[in-house]
Amino acid sequence: MTGERLIRVRLADDQDVFTMRRMGREVAEAAGLAGPDQIRVATALSEIGRELLSQGIGASAAFLLDHDNLVVDIRFPADSGFLPADGAALAGRLVDMIDCVPDEGRISMLKRLPTGLRGASAEEVRAKVSRLAPVTAMEELKRQNQELAETLEEVMQLNTELQETNQGVLALYNQLSAELEETNRGVVALYAELDEKSNQLRRMSDTRNRFWNTVSHELRTPLNSIIGLVRLLVGPGGEPLGAEQLHQVQLIGASAETLLALVSELLDMAKAESGRLDPQPSRVDLIALSERLGMTLRPTSGMEQVTLSVQVAEHAAEMVVDEGMLTKILRNLLSNALKFTEEGEVRLEVATDGATDEVVFTVTDTGIGIPEEHLESVFEEFYQVPGPIQARAKGTGLGLPYARRLAEAMDGTLQLSATPSGGTTAVLRLPQRHAGPPVVSRLLVADDDEKFRATVRRMLSGFAARIDEAPDGLTALELMAADPPDVVLVDLLMPRMDGATLLLRMAEDERLRAVPAIVVTVVTSHQYPQTARAVVSKHDLRRDILLETVRHALEHEGE
Questions:
Q1: CA distance 122 to 113
Q2: What is the pTM of this model?
């Protein structure tokens, strides 16, 4: 151990233990250690000394100053067989570091000196301890007892302070517990109130949805009848009407069609509110769709000074999306732009965003625009921006909320912004779905409902490479006999030959009995031949259900 040596003490009997203890305390004091640290060093030396003597081992202890540390280096015979026990363990807790190596006959203890306070130099420490008079064991014992009494007094004082602190902590804990309990009672009451309010809102929402559905359905029937009668009156084959009569009847028809459009909007919003929007993605030609919208909406502007232009980027010519939902959103955005633009241009631009893998539809106009504070309010139901043009324009304030609901149903976003030069910009962003290769080469739909066949065609777009249609069972049988499909969808209630008969004929034909047949009908309880692979209800038909059913039928082909 390196360092500047202060003094060496031998350890041969009990009197030497007292001497080494006293020397440790005096050296620690001279080196600048405080009273408690002096006692710690002295006690550590005393414990080590007694442990060595208890095993009959003599030793020597050298005190050294090593930079900012007080070091005690104890040496004893390496072959003495010393076994460190409780004394060494206690000494290790009293000093900053202890290194006990019995095989080398060495125990080193280190106590760090306080920083910032300069103690005596090595020469001063040596001079001081050399002047110490010898003391008897009794005198040293008295000194130890005095130190113990002082330490005990400090412990009692600390215990008193600790008790006072504990009392304060306990009082604070009781206060906090009472406040927390009171807060918990308030939170429980608030949760109960919120739960009741939530139930009330849920009941109100259900009531509103039922009201919209009921009113919409009840109004559609008489409105369709009125529109049909008006068309009969003004159409060919009807009795000639006078000019005023024709004008009045046409007003009736126009009003009925306006009411029907309003009822349809209400029904669509009710469907969106109840979460029953189910996108049916298929491959869509965006160029053709945009051109159709342009041709349909351009005459409705009513102003030659307003132009409607469409621009579709070449790399955005096609996407997989629900064509009906996309058409409704774009028609709504373009109609609004034309309605509130008196001169200038309305433009639809379609492009792709490679960074987000989205198709971006941007509708810009040079109309009156929307003030910044109303840009989000227009997505609230029945909200309309106040203004002279808005007062003249017809509308319910449901178009934009419904358009945003449709966009969200397709995992997209719809945002509005005001352009600095006037007008409004609407941006619709939809994820670019990448359709894989077709799963089915050829599929046949046998159903007398033309609208249902068109719906199924959209659902299976991209999933089936080729889709054939048959309006009755006999036609379906002829098509299958000429070229058997991979799978056939069969309606049970068809003219000329119903679905049950068609399935029986297929079972009798050696070429057709292996074709998987899926019954798609409104009468799921109807008895059908066991040759059908599955039965799907038209009421619950969704694209994911239909695709999974077809996959399952193909996987079990030939069983």
A1: 14
A2: 0.47
